[in-house]
Design goal:
Radius of gyration: 18 Å
GO molecular function: hydrolase activity
Number of helices: 4
Keywords: Hydrolase
Distance between the termini: 61 Å
Mean pLDDT: 91
Helix content: 25-40%
Pfam families: 4HBT_2
EC number: 3.1.2.-
InterPro entries: 4-hydroxybenzoyl-CoA_TE (IPR050563), HotDog_dom_sf (IPR029069)
Number of domains: 1
């Protein structure tokens, strides 16, 4: 692998805090709160900041002809955000193996401090020429393991691994 860039300040701690963003007027839906599509925008731009700080930005893609693709995402909406709300996202790695990365993100109101939403994502490391999964290069895997180790100290998030379903009571199932 060509030189692995050093971690940017803050990337080696958990959780990684994104830059502050503002909920824009065009992101508000007819219910008067942040439209669900823009939660994805906020989570996606924040994970890009995290990956860039971890050395997995555009330079990595260009030098290694490899990248990582999101293959699954699960968002939980906890509390509404209004137009103009200042926000930040905290990101961390829950798990990593030879070809996959499992991330966790929390979106917070940057002034009031409340949790607005969570996002759990699974990424695959991909060889860009073959467009197939490929192992992480050893230096990157070591870095991801270290980031995951730092995040482990925070404990597993309560909402991680949730499934979408309607839980039925025994009396409803037999009816």
């Amino acid at each position: 692998m060509s030189g692995t860039p050093a971690l940017s300040s803050g990337a080696d701690t958990a959780p990684f805090r994104s830059s502050r963003k503002t909920v824009l007027p065009e992101w508000i839906d007819y219910n008067g709160h942040l439209n669900m599509a823009y939660y994805n925008v906020l989570f996606d731009t924040a994970i890009d900041e995290f990956f860039l700080a971890a050395g997995l930005g555009p330079d990595y893609v260009a030098s290694e002809n490899a990248s990582f693709f999101t293959v699954e995402a699960h968002i939980c909406y906890v509390r509404e955000l209004a137009e103009g709300a200042p926000v930040h996202v905290e990101s961390r790695i829950l798990d990593v193996d030879d070809k996959r990365l499992h991330s966790w993100q929390e979106l917070y109101h940057a002034e009031e401090g409340f949790l607005s939403a969570t996002s759990e994502q699974m990424f695959l490391h991909v060889d860009m020429e073959s467009r197939r999964t490929a192992p992480w290069p050893a230096p990157i895997r070591e870095r991801l393991d270290a980031l995951q180790g730092a995040a482990t100290k925070l404990g597993r998030p309560e909402r991680a691994g949730r499934a979408i379903r309607i839980a039925r009571k025994a009396s409803e199932q037999s009816a």
